[in-house]
C-alpha cells in the first residue's frame, strides 16, 4: 500500500469517469434502488455451496471503499471450513446465552421481540460462508514500527456496506451477527491484537422455507430519513 520512505503526493488524471445524462443518472439510481430494496436479512440458509471466487470478488469490491488517509484499515476473514464454523458458533452461542439471560437488559430484549431472535445461531454452521470483519486499529511498517490508522470505524463500516451490497448483487443472502464480546474471533482466526472484530456476516442461499420478520419490511419513508436544504 505505502512504504515508510515513500509518503509523497503524486496526482494522476482521473482514471475512470462516468458521464451520464440526468435521465441516465435517474435510471441508474432507480435500478440500484430496485435491486437493493430486495435485500433481506436472512436467518434460514440452504447448504448449497457458493464458489470461493464469488466471495473473493465481493471482498475485492469491499476493498474499493474510501478510507481515512487511504490506509484501508480492514481485514475480511472468509470461513468455509465446517469445523471452524462450528467453533465460531459454539463460542458465539455461549456469549449469546449470557446476552439473552439478562446481560442485554430488558429494554434491548424487548426491542428484539419483533425480530424473533434467540441464543441459537444455526446460520453460523449452515450458511456455506462466514465473513468476519476486522478493524485494524493500527498498522506496522516492515521494521515493526507502528503507524496510526485514521477514521477506522467509519472506514470499516463503509467497506462493510460495500461488501453487503456486492453480496446481494451477486444473488446471495446475508446476516450480520455481532456477539458481544467478540475477542474469541481473534484466537479462532489467528488475527493480531491490532485488529478488532466488528461483525460476523453469514453468506449463502436462502432455505426453501426461509422467512423474514414482517417488521423487517417496514422502512422509514424518505421524508423521515432525509432533509434537503
Structure summarized in a few sentences:
This protein has 229 residues and is α+β, with helices and mostly antiparallel strands.
Task: Write up what this structure looks like.
This protein is of the alpha+beta class and 229 residues long. It is 38% helix and 15% strand. The mean pLDDT is 94. The protein has a four-stranded antiparallel β-sheet with strand order 1-2-6-5. It has a single domain, classed as NADH Oxidase, CATH 3.40.109.10.
Annotation keywords:
four-stranded antiparallel sheet; 15% strand; 229 residues; two-stranded antiparallel sheet; alpha+beta; 38% helix; 8 helices; NADH Oxidase
**Which structural class do the helices and strands define?**
alpha+beta
The overall pLDDT average reads 94
Q: In percent, how helical is the residue content?
A: 25-40%
Percent of residues in β-strands: 15-25%
Helix and strand pattern: HHEHHHEEEHEHEH
- CATH fold name: NADH Oxidase
Question: Topology of this protein?
Answer:
Elements: H1 22-36, H2 52-62, E1 74-79, H3 82-103, H4 106-112, H5 123-126, E2 129-136, E3 138-140, E4 146-148, H6 152-169, E5 173-177, H7 184-189, E6 195-204, H8 222-225
Helix pairs in contact: 2-6
